[in-house]
Amino acid sequence: MQINTMEAIEILGTISFAISGSFAAMQKRLDPFGVLIIAFVTSVGGGTVRDLLLGDTPVAWMRDVNYCLLILLTSIATIFFKTHIKKFKVTLFLFDSLGLGLFTILGIQKGIVFGLSPGICIALGTITGCFGGIIRDTFLNTIPLIFRKEVYATVCIMGGILYFSLLYFNLKEDLAKVVVIAFIFAFRIVVVRYKLTLPKFGY
Amino acid sequence: MQINTMEAIEILGTISFAISGSFAAMQKRLDPFGVLIIAFVTSVGGGTVRDLLLGDTPVAWMRDVNYCLLILLTSIATIFFKTHIKKFKVTLFLFDSLGLGLFTILGIQKGIVFGLSPGICIALGTITGCFGGIIRDTFLNTIPLIFRKEVYATVCIMGGILYFSLLYFNLKEDLAKVVVIAFIFAFRIVVVRYKLTLPKFGY
Amino acid sequence: MQINTMEAIEILGTISFAISGSFAAMQKRLDPFGVLIIAFVTSVGGGTVRDLLLGDTPVAWMRDVNYCLLILLTSIATIFFKTHIKKFKVTLFLFDSLGLGLFTILGIQKGIVFGLSPGICIALGTITGCFGGIIRDTFLNTIPLIFRKEVYATVCIMGGILYFSLLYFNLKEDLAKVVVIAFIFAFRIVVVRYKLTLPKFGY
């Protein structure tokens, strides 16, 4: 997998996370600054929590101002063109799923670089993919969606397990990445398409 | 106090924190993944915030995969055997109180190792004991219980003050630890038994 | 600008942040410990998040126990003399605005020391000024005020842009600081006096 493809996926993922954050914030009738912050937190939250837990500071987004600009522009565009953007709901969902796959892999990789065990690496991948949404929902004063509905994190965890299984069977690392991103992408689409959820438990 | 006893207390404390997190999450009707995350956050939240504030990264639970497995298994067991586990309410409360004492001492010790002043060490001990529950309640979208009811943190703070007083009067460190853990354990039980709360203040 | 003036502003700012936190907590009928924690988090939250993101640990308040004592005493005084303190609403608001200006500058400066780009430095300044209130509101289970009303963060961002503009035009650093603190102070007062808010966006 070439760097360029990876980067393109990261940009598409970031944009779709920022748009999802902006819409969630507008729904709660925040002012434009609030919308911006929620967009930002949704996009960079996962990677930031991962970097904090690892002690890899200053955290990633501080070292790349372009990344911040991208989120800023996406958020402003979402505020102004919200009716247009809503029409691309399906496209955005596809970007989001692609981004989820990539972010999971990025988190896992970072854990490997830090010499952590596979279980912890999978946790880091899941945190990278999911924590942005958790912080977004916490700030917006709702129980994080991910804890209640949609098998979002489960998809990341299964992708992570698949990744280490593939490496265990000596698959080339780059190929394993592509397979896992494709797996998370496809699995997420199936889950949402057929409205699969985990069973809930009452007290 | 032998290492083995300390470790046993830590394991019992971790288990009881994980169970309390699982029950709180099931009460809010989260899906199994949500229950797991809340159990995890309740157990490791305090130590994680402490390590982040100190800059001691990667944070503790990342370096010990057994710890994570313990929480995972506890959480799964709680989901499946919830009716059975509820019968051990009193036992769990005792473990929880014991864990609170130990976690407070662990936080204080870490502060001492980092050369911080007693007041800050006590704050670290209290954070280690209490922040797991604060994050749990924040994610579950309620005002943290600890801010409203039950003299949870007060017990930690008083235990911390006692610890430094004992050291000041040249008590052997290991003995001081045992005394403080016993004090927090006993004090907490008295507080809950007699429904003591701090007076509340209106605006 | 002399160190003494800066320090005096920092102390006044800290006190007014602690008082605002205490009142918000009492309004939600927390117990005294809860009031204390919310006061603490409101005061040190912004600087703590900044230090964590930068990896400058142990975070600032751990290295200065006087700072913690100041917040503790302020919080206790607020609990006991709340009716008196409310009479100084205007004075407190002025301190708060002055503190906001200073905290923003402190955050920007720290970013510069870490060699970060101006955009990121402004973000750090805004985080230092605003995140205490965001954490306060999150713990108190409301959508952070700053996301919904009052152009709080916007004032920080504009102050930050002004600061780098002044440096760009070769203004002496110390003078630039005074100008920016005065600008944030004055701008905030105008905003609140004339009830200016950013327009809101529905979904």
Low-pLDDT stretches of chain A are: none
Q: Bin the strand percentage of chain A.
A: under 5%
Mean pLDDT of chain A: 84
The largest sheet of chain A is: none
Total helical segments of chain A: 9
Commentary on this structure:
The structure is a homotrimer of 203-residue chains. With 203 residues, chain A is an all-alpha fold. Chain A has one domain (3-193). Helix content of chain A is 78%, strand content 0%. In chain A, helix 1 (3-27) crosses helix 5 and helix 5 packs across helix 8. In chain A, 51% of the residues are buried.
Supply the key terms:
Trimeric intracellular cation channel family protein (chains A, B, C), homotrimer, 9 helices, transmembrane helix (chains A, B, C), 0% strand, globular, mainly alpha, Gly_transporter (chains A, B, C), 203 residues
